[in-house]
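Hey team,

Filing this mostly as a record. A colleague (T.K.) asked me to run one chain through the structure pipeline before their review meeting, and I want the input and output archived in the tracker in case anyone asks later how it was produced. No errors, nothing strange. Just documentation.

Input sequence:
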Amino acid sequence: MKAIGFKENLPIDNVKSLQDIEIETPKATGRDILVEIKAVSVNPVDYKVRANRPAQGDQWSVIGWDATGIVKEIGDDVTLFKVGDEVWYAGDLTRQGSNAEYQLVDERIVGKKPTSLSHAEAAALPLTTLTAWEMLFDRLQVSKEDANKSILVIGAAGGVGSILVQLAKKLTKLNIIATASREETSDWLKELGADKVINHRNKLSEEFEKYQIPAPEYVVSLNGTEQHTAEIVKLIKPQGKFGFIDDPKIMNVMPFKGKAVSTHIELMFTRSMFQTEDMIEQHNILNEVSSLIDKGIIKTTLGENFGVINAENLRKAHAFLETGKAKGKIVLEGF
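Output structure:
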């Protein structure tokens, strides 16, 4: 089968950083399903793994953690899907990824693709949806009924923020303050449901004071956490909850002690990496969001379609994502 892989950790402007290859098509066993890939999207985890995780021995490393496709084969223990089903999922960090014609994935982290979206439109959502949902409802345990609280979402115009703002708007009664630094991304967030958009290039506390925004009970930082930590400590409400998803080199939580702020890290790969008892929750979340999409409550966060799935286009997608200027998600479609 066709795939895109690497053997060396190289800068994305090197043609060997991602290469078109041919590898053997895998077989489905146990709880695995074999999916014929129709579309994929690119996330920061893609370029982080490409740049830092060596391939095993002389084997090709195939990455990619968002996909839509059609079930072509099922393992003996599969009960949730049948051949021919259209599915979407974010995959497993410990296994070969979705940048291939076919991929094996455990049925417990797969959902039914929204019928109202194309494969490309749907591929933009699984990883970011799971990350946003788990952050809101598993980590921060946000109430869906409390109308007297607010959430600040830092770096909200990217993939995770674009779906997190929608989930918070549609499923909770929170007042949503989002941050962006460009008019284009600010307008995008207002369209998605943000009640107020402030500029994260300025001091956040000064932005809150300028617009007379009350202290938020919840703060979610999606990028630049290290540079914003002091401001978050200053503005978050005492006994609030703070969550982040990026990778600060140093994360000192002690400044939060005075306000008794709880700190939460979200990684949507945890359930599959450790085969947790509640691993099937990702199947349930994806199915619930699929239903919300088909009811017109949530919309795709597709930003740009970079064309067919090949090494050249994936290199372009990685390079653009590494600039930090993406609005919504970058997708690729078909082989």
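Quick notes for T.K.: Residues 126-139 form the longest helix (14 residues). The two ends are 10 Å apart (CA to CA).
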